[in-house]
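Just wondering, can you check both lines?
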Amino acid sequence: MLVVIPDVLTPEEVAYIRQVLERTNWIDGRTTAGEQAALVKKNLQVPVDSQEGRELSQIVMRGLARNDTFSSAALPLHVLPPMFNRYDEGMTFGAHVDGSIRVIPGTGQRIRTDVSSTLFLTPAEDYDGGELVVHDTYGTHSVKLPAGHMVVYPATSMHSVTPVTRGSRWASFFWTQSMIKDDWRRNMLYDLDRSIIRIRQTVPDDDPAVVGLTAHYHNLIRHWTEV
C-alpha cells in the first residue's frame, strides 16, 4: 500500500527546516546504510546526533502526531526519529530494500521497520530527477511531491531514488513499526477507515451502519495488533 499524504508540515515549518538545514554540516549518507545498500547509495545526511537533527526531527514528529491520515495508514507503535537527507546533482540511491531492524538513537531500543516514509522538503520545480521509485506487486510507482507532502509505503518494497540532474532534493525519511505487522491487513484497515469517514459525511454517527462498521474496524485492530 502506497499512500500520499499532503500537508504533513505547514509552509512555515518547511521554511524553518530548510533555513536550519542551510547552515547544517552534512555527512556521507553511507554512514547509516547497510553493507549492500552502501554500494548503491550516494547522498548526504544530517548527523542523527547533531543538535539540528534532533530539533528538526521533533518538528516532523509534531506534524505526524496531528495527521490523521498517517495514523490511519501506518497505525504506528514506534516511530524512528526522522532523519534528513540531500541529493545534489549526480547523487542517487540504487534499488534496495530497507533493513528490517533499526535502533532508536540513544536508547538501544530496536524497532521493526514495517513502514517507510519520505517527507519532501524541496519544491518539485526546484530540481530535476530525484524521484522516489517504489516497486511492489502492483507495478512501479514514481513519486515526486510538493514540499511538506509525504509518501508512506511498505518497507519490504524494493525502491530507489533516480539521479538528480539539476538542483538539490532535500527530504526527511524515517521508519515506523506498526501495530499491524502485515501490510495486507494494514491496507484493509486503511480502506475500511476511509470508507467509514466517507459514510459519516452522509449519515448520522448513530446510524446502525456507521456504528457496526466502526465496531468491526476496532475489533479487527484488537484481533490483529501485535504489541
Remarks:
- The helical segments are 11-22, 51-65, 68-74, 183-200, 208-224.
